[in-house]
Amino acid sequence: MRKLLQVDFTFQGPFGEEMSALLKELAESINQEPGMIWKIWTENAQTQQGGGVYLFEDEQSALAYLEMHTARLQQMGITDVRGIVFDINEPLSLINKGPIDK
């Protein structure tokens, strides 16, 4: 069953176009992660937060990615990583055009 993973953390930047240029290769590598279907990158320069919302094929893939990603962020000096795995209510999400049927 597909799972949604939400990750957020305190992030000092860069944001916007600078972040896009700096993290392009990382974004491309994330496409190779087992079970990953898509990711939406999130950022808020005003509150100094970064993160993402991911759709995974199953809970095992989501949890494995969260463990690996948390370790990677910690190596970058980010220590307050919060990750939550959610079930998806597919019928309601599809009514609201949630991109889960891909």
From TrEMBL:
PANTHER family: MONOOXYGENASE YDHR-RELATED (PTHR39169:SF1), PTHR39169. Keywords: Monooxygenase, Oxidoreductase. This is Monooxygenase. The keyword Oxidoreductase applies. InterPro entries: Dimeric_a/b-barrel (IPR011008), YdhR (IPR014910). GO terms for molecular function: monooxygenase activity. Gene3D superfamilies: 3.30.70.100. NCBIfam families: PRK11118.1.
